[in-house]
Design a protein that fits this description.
Blueprint lengths: L7 H19 L14 H12 L10 H13 L4 H18 L5 H7 L13 H23 L3
Helix pairs in contact: 1-2, 2-3, 2-4, 3-4, 4-5
Length: 148
Amino acid sequence: MRRGPRSASAKLVEQVYAESLTADAAKPGAASLETISHADPRWQVAVRTNYLLDGGRAALLTPERRRAVLDLAETLGLRAFDANLIIAIVQDSRRTTGEGLTPETRHRLAMIRPGENPDRRSPWAFAAGVLIFAGMLTWALSRAFVTP
């Protein structure tokens, strides 16, 4: 069973991806290049970048908005270097074609290294959490069974 998007931004990312695929399929003699899915962190950062760009074809990104894109990329497991490449690709696409998310953009994004899994957590953090929980439980039980 396929789960649908959970938020408005997830729906937007999937919608923009579907539009990009439709535009790609409409091109005569379209080559089957490596592409990325709508759930890929590189595509999500590209969509966010595209919607934060100002100035039409000028494709301006203020420092505050760039910081927001870089924070999103870090959250999704992308390196800052790769996030800046994604920003540059989307800006270049917007400046040359007037649209930031074209099939060519999607193919160019596929060349960037995929992010690491942000859900991987250190086993030391888990062990520390277990020890803290055990200490709190011991303290609570000792307070409950000791009469004043």
